[in-house]
Every structure is written in structure tokens, then in C-alpha cells.
Amino acid sequence: MKNIVLIGLTGCGKTTIGRKLAKAFSIDFVDMDEYIEQKEGKTVSDIFKDSGEPYFRSLETVVAKELSETGGKVIATGGGVILNPKNMEYLKQNAVTVFLDRSPDDILKKINLSVRPMLAQNKNRLYELYTERLPLYETYADLRITGGTDVLKTLKQVENGLKPLL
């Protein structure tokens, strides 16, 4: 079975939907950020603080390659994974890519900014990230799910959208 790769802004629901999707399809779930945290023995925030974003992005590429060599997983990516074309080349090798397109306004109502390295200092950065990254999310998506405020409704949309693609 192909992997199901979830892309989208930080806080759009990739991990929440990913866990439920993996359960629905009876396959494994991997959150790339959590995977990196386990490998490094520190949080993403601490990696950013201690080693910088370029180092974190290099770890993302290593993990993208590693995960692309497997199948039958739901993979929740970090919001910036799409910034490096190599990441997406790896991840799309054996996968269907789902863009969870949720508005910055909806995201800001729900997330804890202090644990989001890209937003901790400036919540308005989320609007900038959306504008900057939207063309990349659209380019890499095999399926785009818009909205995302209702988890069960979003999950059903993803499941229905994936059926013809898997």
C-alpha cells in the first residue's frame, strides 16, 4: 500500500487527522516532527533554538528519504517540508499527498503558539507563511481538503477523496 502524506500549515490538523486516518485504514502513523524529536532527543523548538532552522530542515530531508522507503503509513509532515523539493521528491515516490488547507484564522483559534517555533514570536507570521507556501502545497497535493474545523467531517472528506487514489 502507498503512504498517505499529509501536508499543510502548522496547526492545520495533520497529526490529528493523521492518527484517525491511520486507525481507519489500519496502518501505521508517523508524525515527522515527533520522529525527529525522538531521533534528536529534543523538541523541535529546542532544535530550532539550539541548532537553527537550516539544521532542522536537513533532518527533515533525512527523515523524508527514510520514510519514503517504506509503505503503508500515514505520514504527518511539518508545515515547511514542502520548502525543499528533495523532501517532496522523496515523499511522493510511494505516496498520495493530501493538502489539508485550513485558514490561518481557524488555526490561530485552536493552537498553542508557544510550541510552534515559526510562530512563537509573531502570530501574524502564519498569514505570511500561508501566502508564501500555498503555491507549493497546491503543486505537491494529489488531493486538497479545504476547511478542517470539524475533525470528523474532515476525516470523512479525506477518506472519500483517497479511495480513487490508493
Fold topology:
Blueprint: E1 3-7, H1 14-25, E2 28-31, H2 32-40, H3 44-51, H4 53-68, E3 73-76, H5 85-92, E4 95-101, H6 104-110, H7 125-140, E5 143-146, H8 151-162
Parallel strand pairs: 1-3, 1-4, 2-3, 4-5
Helix pairs in contact: 1-8, 2-4, 3-4, 4-5
Biggest sheet record: 5 strands, parallel
Name given to the CATH architecture: 3-Layer(aba) Sandwich
The CATH topology is Rossmann fold
Specify Rg, calculated over alpha carbons.
15 Å
Structural class: alpha/beta
Beta-strand percent range: 5-15%
Number of helices: 8
Q: Enumerate the spans where pLDDT stays under 50 for 5 or more consecutive residues.
A: none
Judging from the principal axes of the Cα atoms, what is the shape?
A: globular
Calculate the terminal CA-CA distance, rounded to whole Å: 7 Å
Number of domain units: 1
Task: Please bin the fraction of helical residues.
Answer: 40-55%
- Strand order within the widest sheet? 2-3-1-4-5
The ordered string of helix (H) and strand (E) elements is: EHEHHHEHEHHEH
CATH secondary-structure class: Alpha Beta
Write down the overall mean pLDDT. Answer: 90
Number of strands: 5
The CATH superfamily name is P-loop containing nucleotide triphosphate hydrolases
Explain how this protein is built.
The longest helix is centred in the middle third of the chain and has 16 residues. The chain is globular and about 40 Å long. It has one domain: Rossmann fold (3-Layer(aba) Sandwich). By secondary structure, the chain is an alpha/beta fold. It has a 5-stranded parallel sheet with strand order 2-3-1-4-5, sandwiched between helices. Helix 2 crosses helix 4, helix 3 crosses helix 4 and helix 4 packs parallel to helix 5. The termini are close together. The protein is built from 8 helices and 5 strands, in the order E-H-E-H-H-H-E-H-E-H-H-E-H.
